[in-house]
Design brief:
Strand order of the largest sheet: 1-2-3
Number of helices: 2
Helix content: 25-40%
Shape: elongated
Radius of gyration: 13 Å
CATH superfamily: BolA-like
CATH topology: GMP Synthetase, Chain A, domain 3
Strand content: 25-35%
Structural class: alpha+beta
Number of strands: 3
Oligomer: single chain
Number of domains: 1
Distance between the termini: 31 Å
Largest sheet: 3 strands, mixed
Amino acid sequence: MSNHETDFQGDVHHAIRSAIESVIPDATVIVGGAGGHFTIEVTAGVFEGKSMLQSQRIVLGAIAHLMKGERAPVHAVDSLRTHAS
């Protein structure tokens, strides 16, 4: 795991979960990882009938602001799994 430097203050897991839940209110979100590298698993009804790529784009769009800039708190999403509920 890398030691990714960031200016972010607070719990990154909570920030990721909150960002996703703000876009997908009925989502169940599990976040793991540290050091700028995270794993995310999201279960939500909004994914019903969507392709894996469409579902992942929704999630990545929700956390895009946490991935912008050289010192962003999220450097990489090593694993992103989405499931329809």
